[in-house]
Design brief:
The protein is of the alpha/beta class. It has one domain (26-205): Rossmann fold, CATH 3.40.50.10610. Helices cover 38% and strands 29% of the residues. It contains 5 helices and 6 strands, in the order αβαβαβααβββ. The chain has helices at 3-20, 46-65, 91-105, 114-123, 136-150; strands spanning 25-29, 73-82, 109-111, 157-171, 174-187, 193-205. Strands 1-6-5-4-2-3 form a 6-stranded mixed beta sheet. Helix 2 (46-65) packs parallel to helix 3. The longest helix is centred in the first third of the chain and has 20 residues, at 46-65. It is globular, with a radius of gyration of 23 Å. It starts with a helix and ends with a strand.
């Protein structure tokens, strides 16, 4: 092989290797966007966009249910149960902070500090993680403890969510993930429970 051809072949091989090491890239798709579009752009945080759509909706419905009530109601956020194959990791604190801001913006709810809730759980001998409040049995015990120490109806609402996903291969090196964020809020005084679902899609290329 002539030197020029050998050099060209080496450059081509290196470029192919570099492309293979980039891994998968992805971004959130618009609701009506067809599969197979260029997805090699910066990814948008799918959970962030879903929360910003779903949380105000479910808080608005809860606010409408207590129309005419005096004062602000205390709300505990139990977190997002992640049932996907993607780790939330350090995003958990961001999720809590984001929901805290949205709760405060309603004008009718105050969010109880996660630290305060987990301190109460620790005193009860429960594992001090607010996410465990997704379990109805744990939730009931914690509410009863708050009523004993802070007074009846200290907590009025508990909000939590579950994130699920499913992957499908669309061919031509492109795959699609469908996400569902299911938010639930329960009025611990009346037992009324509301649910809101937000759907999203994320496309990937190899």
């Amino acid at each position: 092989m002539r030197p020029s051809l050998a050099l060209a072949a080496a450059i081509l091989a290196a470029a192919s290797l570099a492309a293979g090491c980039t891994g998968r890239t992805g971004r959130v798709m618009d609701a009506n966007e067809p599969v197979g579009t260029d997805v090699r752009q910066a990814s948008t945080d799918v959970l962030d966009s879903m929360m910003k759509e779903g949380v105000p909706k479910i808080l608005g419905r809860a606010r409408d249910q207590q129309a005419g009530a005096e004062g602000r109601s205390r709300l505990v956020f139990a977190g997002i149960q992640n049932n996907t194959d993607e780790r939330l990791g350090e995003k958990k604190d961001y999720v809590y902070d984001t929901v805290d801001i949205m709760v405060g913006q309603t004008g009718v709810f105050d969010m109880v500090s996660r630290t305060f809730v987990e301190n109460v759980m620790d005193q009860m001998g429960e594992q001090p993680r607010a996410e465990l409040l997704i379990d109805p049995a744990v939730r009931r015990k914690v509410v009863e403890r708050f009523e004993q120490t802070e007074g009846r109806d200290y907590i009025r609402y508990i909000l939590w969510g579950k994130l699920n996903n499913a992957t499908s291969d669309t061919g031509s090196g492109t795959s699609e993930k469908k996400y569902a964020l299911v938010l639930e809020i329960v009025d611990v005084k009346t037992g009324l429970q509301l649910k809101e679902q937000v759907l999203s899609r994320k496309a990937y290329t190899e």
